[in-house]
């Protein structure tokens, strides 16, 4: 369970390509426009399917939904629900009927949020624009990020960004070994305008949950 939570961020790689000596200006401009698209959305929601690969073999996919507003997010899958209000994080595990409360570090948040690349590219990665131009019938821009530090959880990150909206449609996260994870994102909805409380754990909705405070 902890492994699944850790993978989902990032809220998202060592390849055969050589490390770039400098960051490509075109790739940076695309990433910055993507970050701006999220900021202007006034609350954005999307569905995703996360598929882990072990030694190149696809494992059982996981469907989920993410809701974002600024630093706040609410992540829902069949195995957990996670709320983050900018300071405190709650993770509800229905199989255990418990909710864990924590104050996550920036690195932990990047590991939970499958759209964490919005800030990930700013430190510790070099990036370049790839050659792929279409994905599922849509015109896209491919961005590849490579970790400067081999000790990072993700050594490589590949993004397919919609050319018309600057919203990501696909993310590939690769670990230092052969394992990697694919996240397909769809059904974007913008202008949701949630209240701040939307990103707090609602105790009354889970009256039987055991609260475990890990702070």
Layout of helices and strands, plus pairs?
Elements: H1 2-7, H2 25-40, E1 44-54, E2 57-58, E3 62-69, E4 72-77, E5 81-84, E6 89-93, E7 98-102, H3 106-112, H4 117-120, E8 125-129, E9 134-135, E10 138-147, E11 156-162, E12 168-174, E13 180-190, E14 210-213
Parallel strand pairs: 7-14
Antiparallel strand pairs: 1-2, 1-3, 1-13, 3-4, 4-5, 5-6, 6-7, 8-10, 9-10, 10-11, 11-12, 12-13
Name the features.
215 residues; 14-stranded mixed beta sheet; outer membrane lipoprotein receptor (LolB), chain A; alpha+beta; 14 strands; globular
How is this structure best summarized?
This protein is α+β, with helices and mostly antiparallel strands.
Task: Walk me through the structure.
This protein is of the alpha+beta class and 215 residues long. The chain has a single domain (2-12, 23-213), classed as Lipoprotein localisation LolA/LolB/LppX (outer membrane lipoprotein receptor (LolB), chain A, Clam). The chain is built from four helices and 14 strands. Strands 1, 2, 3, 4, 5, 6, 7, 8, 9, 10, 11, 12, 13 and 14 form a 14-stranded mixed beta sheet that branches. Strand 11 (156-162) and strand 12 (168-174) form a beta hairpin. It starts with a helix and ends with a strand.
User: Topology as H/E string?
Assistant: HHEEEEEEEHHEEEEEEE
CATH fold node name: outer membrane lipoprotein receptor (LolB), chain A
Helix- and strand-based class? alpha+beta
Looking at CATH, the homologous superfamily is Lipoprotein localisation LolA/LolB/LppX
């Amino acid at each position: 369970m902890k492994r699944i939570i850790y993978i989902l961020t990032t809220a998202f790689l060592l390849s055969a390509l050589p490390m770039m000596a400098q960051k490509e200006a075109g790739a940076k401009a695309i990433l910055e426009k993507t970050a701006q698209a999220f900021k202007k959305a006034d609350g954005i929601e999307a569905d995703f399917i996360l598929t882990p690969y072990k030694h190149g073999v696809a494992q059982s996919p996981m469907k989920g939904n993410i809701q974002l507003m600024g630093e706040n997010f609410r992540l829902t899958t069949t195995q957990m629900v996670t709320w983050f209000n900018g300071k405190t994080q709650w993770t509800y595990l229905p199989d255990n009927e418990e909710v864990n409360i924590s104050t996550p570090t920036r690195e932990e948040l990047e590991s939970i949020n499958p759209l964490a690349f919005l800030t990930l590219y700013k430190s510790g990665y070099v990036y370049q624009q790839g050659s792929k131009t279409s994905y599922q019938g849509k015109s896209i821009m491919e961005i590849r990020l490579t970790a400067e530090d081999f000790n990072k959880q993700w050594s490589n990150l590949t993004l397919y960004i919609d050319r018309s909206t600057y919203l990501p449609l696909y993310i590939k996260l690769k670990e230092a070994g052969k394992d990697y994870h694919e996240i397909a994102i769809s059904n974007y909805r913008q202008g949701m305008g949630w209240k701040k409380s939307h990103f707090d754990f609602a105790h009354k909705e889970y009256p039987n949950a055991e609260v475990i405070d890990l702070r």
